[in-house]
Each structure stands twice: as structure tokens, then as C-alpha cells.
Design a protein that fits this description.
The mean pLDDT is about 90. By secondary structure, the chain is mostly helical. It has helices at about 5-15, 20-25, 30-35, 45-55; strands at about 1-5, 60-65. About 15% of the residues are buried.
């Protein structure tokens, strides 16, 4: 599973609120909601976030193995 905890920390550190995200159309509200719930987002949204937060994609997300997957 991909987790976006790093993104939310960066947004908080840079004082970018959900209001600013919506007002400046950084990413759509649906994408923000998907990130909150561990959903998949597209690379255009990742690109926009990297530009606004001045970071690399790895600074936004991390892979955490699902515990229920049997290999």
C-alpha cells in the first residue's frame, strides 16, 4: 500500500491548507480524499504536488507492505 503521510506533513510544514489546495486548484478535492484514504492517484497530481512543495515523488509517499497479502 502507498501511504501519503509524508505529503500531509510537508503540506503542514509549508502551511498549505486544504482551503489553499482547493482555491489554487493544486489538486482536485477527490484526489486529496483518495490520498487521505490510501487510494491511488495519478502522476499529474504527484507532479503538481512536487512543484508546489519543491520536492521529489519519494518525499511525498512511501510503500508499506500490506499485512494481508500472502506471497
Amino acid at each position: 500500500m502507498i501511504k501519503y503521510d509524508k505529503t500531509f506533513k510537508l503540506l503542514k510544514d509549508k502551511q498549505i491548507t486544504t482551503y489553499k489546495i482547493r482555491k489554487e486548484n493544486i489538486i482536485p478535492q477527490g484526489v486529496y480524499t483518495k490520498m487521505k484514504h490510501g487510494g491511488h492517484i495519478d502522476t499529474r497530481s504527484i507532479n503538481k504536488l512536487c512543484k508546489v512543495l519543491e520536492c521529489q515523488p519519494g518525499d511525498l509517499m512511501e510503500y508499506v507492505p500490506d499485512e494481508d497479502i500472502i506471497e
